[in-house]
Amino acid sequence: MNLELLNHLFSEVKTPELYGRYITNSDIEKCLGNLSKPKISTIGYSVEERPIYSLKLGNGPIKILLWSQMHGNESTSTKALFDCFNLFETDHELGKRFLEECTLMVIPVLNPDGAERYTRVNANEVDLNRDAQDLSQPESKVLRHIYTDFKPDYCFNLHGQRTIFSAGETEHVATLSFLSPAQDEERQLTTNRKAAMAIIAEINELLQSEIPNAIGRYDDGFNLNCVGDTFQNFGVPTLLYEAGHYKNDYDREEVRRLMFVAILKGLDVIVNGVDISKYEAYFGIPENAKCFYDIIIRNAKCSHLDDLVDIAIQYKEVLIEGKLQFVPIVEELSKLNNKYGHKEIEANGFLVKTTDNFDLITGSEIDFVIVNNERISLKP
């Protein structure tokens, strides 16, 4: 398996019906009817009675459970999963091999109410990834029931992350991030944790040539309320995937491709036999830090401040009339020497004002700025 092959396959099987960040049940329902190989089931209902779907593919001995959109506004991996489903519909040897060696149980949208609202939480405003012990929500109970009934050998917990994350304390954005969650307070390196680490290490090795220095790993502080920690605690190797940011890719279409590659590589490592001795390479992946803003305006003069400052702008993702909008918010006014912007604007000491000739104030929403009489859009 190599990147050239996987990128070529992606171009052939990408699901055109799914695009952008706002992906709901109604979007995936348009795609489910195009699939012939999976057994598609309704495995439960959300708080607001939206169906939760599962797809069962393959008949191999290795059982892998995958779920996406546990957080309703994290849709990139859902798109990548449907691209994988399209691959499995073809006669390509790679897809056929996975379905011969594995049985995949996939929940593409675990939190359909959150997906509809474009929120992290469900309709009861509960974070499902903090409900693994209480199982207070119907969506949490659905996932646990599937886990108990299916008895997976591996779990892929598919998420998305904000644009703020860097791969280490560096100027490199964390385009993808991973974690082999802890399963106890001591964060012991058990056999199943090492297996998850070894898989992640091989995914990282493959992708470094495409996104060098742009893969991070999350801190493994233990929290049994998190689903990944709980399933790891049950003794099943569990991998957290996080789809992050790629340059100018606010629709997460390039990251979708990289998630497609990462999911298939994870399956490939499992099918080939996980070499646990490779787990140590996992620790060579830098730990995530928060070094990025969406925009930084450097060396700006503000009339209400004595010294030059850097102006940090962060997008707030807002659903307006069924469409996702990126609203620029002034986040910070200070010298940001150890921070980076996905876009940087050099003010060169000139006064920065709003188009209404007001000062920029922390917390304010602003679509344009005036720098040296030039009107500059802050929209992506």
From TrEMBL:
Key word Ribonucleoprotein present: no
Classification via SMART domains: Zn_pept
Keywords, sorted A to Z: Carboxypeptidase, Hydrolase, Protease
GO terms classed as biological process: proteolysis
InterPro entries per UniProt: Peptidase_M14
Stored Pfam families: Peptidase_M14 (PF00246)
Domain Peptidase M14: 6-267
Family, per entry: Belongs to the peptidase M14 family.
Protein name: Zinc carboxypeptidase
Organism: Winogradskyella thalassocola
Classification of source organism: Bacteria, Pseudomonadati, Bacteroidota, Flavobacteriia, Flavobacteriales
